Amino acid sequence: MPTIRGLHARCATPGGGAWGALRGHLARLCGIAAVALPAQLLGAAVACSPPEGFHALSSPDAQIAYRWEPERLEVGRFFAVEVIVCRTAGAREPEGVTVDALMPAHGHGMNYRPTSERLGGDRFRAAGLMLHMPGRWRFTFDILHGGGRTRLSRDVDVQP
Amino acid sequence: MRRMALTLAIGFATTAAGSWPLAAEPAISFSGEEKATILAHGPWPPSFVPDPSNRVSGMVDAVALGRRLFFDKRLSRDQDRACTTCHDPDRFFADGRDRSVGLARTDRNAIALANLRLARWFGWGGAADSLWMQSLRPILDVRELGATAEMIHTRLAADGDLAARYERLFGSNLASDPPELVLVNCGKALAAFQETIVTGRTPFDAFRDALAAGDAEGIARYPMAAQRGLKIFVGTGRCSVCHHGPNFTNGEFDDIGVPFFAEPGRVDTGRHGGLAELRGSPFNLLGPHNDDPLDAAALPTRHIEPLHRNWGEFRVPSLRNVARTGPYMHNGSLATLRDVIRHYSQVDIERLHGDDGGRVVRPLRLSQEEQADLISFLETLSSPLSTPR
Fold first, then answer.
1. pLDDT category, A32, cuts 50, 70, 90?
2. Does A114 touch chain B if contact means CB atoms closer than 8 Å?
3. For B247, which of A16, A84, A119, B279 is 20 to 30 Å away at the CA?
4. For residues B303 and A113, what is the distance between their CA atoms, to the nearest angstrom?
5. Calpha distance B354→B307 (Å, rounded)
6. pLDDT value at A35 more than 60
7. Residues A118, B372 contacting (CB under 8 angstroms)
């Protein structure tokens, strides 16, 4: 059976944009318990404990938790991903989350365009993803806010 | 009793492995990744899963009606051609021509109709998103059977026995159903029949299962040349990147450098045109004829993204029975497997339209021996067809 192995998180903020200063204390947000605080930008360096079954992904500017549906990714099978944005108390609510994937070694992406919806609060779900080749795929999670975006990415090896 | 069981076991192994002699040389060494890729090409055959978009999929009466329609010349404009004209059961449901000939010569090679129930897209350009939709395309295409929904409605309504079978199956009266619905229902019966056309177990499948089980004797029965070819297929050749999984296809599309001029000055745009046709058709899975109550079957259609690289991309075909279903490529331009291997060995990446810049498809520069080994492997993907119902 094909398996999936997360590699390393690659983080960037292509959209840029300050999210404002963090103030106050962290609160439990959308099922993620926030446990660390100091940061200058909204969402920055926020450490969250992902709920059971979720994977954590963070950068200096943002942190998310995500889980694949179904849990095991297989070549040629459609799947979805649920994403929780870890947000500090008082921080602006993200406008959306988009997910995409490409194969860096091949220079192409997926043949399908995922659609995203907000499940409520800071939870989002992207559906319609399909990986049509085995190998290394780079997933990008874009958190949309105020016309900009903060991108987190993770490389995943999808086995045959 | 034990002797009988042993005899049966040997008989099965001989049949499944195609009576290959035991190999004298040591088996080829496969890396862990190569072995995983080989195992992903099975098991075979897959279990039957009805098509949720077709409410008569898997039904015995639908298969029988579909089989009858498959041979029925009333589905053609002049009542002189049938599906079998280009999909001959004696030729593995292909026609052996480079390009098929219906009412006119078409631009494309007839795809052998086997294992289609595993497909996501249909036709060389993926212009259909269900097998029943695909079954309507040649009926309506003016170069193929050239019929209309009205013609078929009138002709079939006059056939009392067929109309009775239709009514039993679909629960409505053929004569009073709208012509478009009758056409769609014919497509669904045709699809139910075609779903039963499945390739059987092959020498490769016996090897793959032996590899999975660690069965040294079973592994040794697989010819050495085929093992060497298989190692190229899953390794340096990168063939299994696209020809992936039990059906040896990822079900998608690619540009492999085959010229896409249908004739001087006219291009077959492949997936690009296929997507345009799909989106404009009232028969796609986003339309009213999709029977799937959960609407899951339409997921690929809903999320498909037209891409620049679709221009000149064609279906990645299954390789099961590939040695028996030439000529090859969307336009039948390569007559033999040797021609196909030579193409991949020498492919001109300057001709590729894809975004990958030749990073998947690039010249393999195979020696004559390697080409022969690859062909030996492909020949072990052959088996008789089985139609279980």
1. very low
2. yes
3. B279
4. 5
5. 10
6. no
7. no
Cα separation, B291 vs B285, whole angstroms = 9
Q: Which residues pair with B127 in a beta bridge?
A: none
Give me B350's structure tokens.
Answer: 């300057």
CA-CA distances (angstroms) from residue B355 to A23, A90, A100, A106?
Answer: 46, 43, 17, 8
Cβ–Cβ under 8 Å, residues B323 and B378: yes
Residue position matching structure tokens 């340096």:
B236
DSSP B29: P
Kindly report, residue by residue over B96-133, the tens digit of the pLDDT. Answer: 999 999 999 999 999 999 999 999 999 999 999 999 99
**Whole-structure pTM value:** 0.87
Q: Which among B251, B354, B360 has the least Cβ separation from residue A76?
A: B251
Q: Which amino acid is at B96?
A: G
Interface of B with A (CB under 8 A): 33, 36-37, 39-40, 120, 240-242, 244-245, 250-253, 299-300, 302-305, 307, 309, 354-357, 359-360
Residue B187 DSSP SS3: helix
Nearest residue in chain B measured CA to CA from A157 = B33
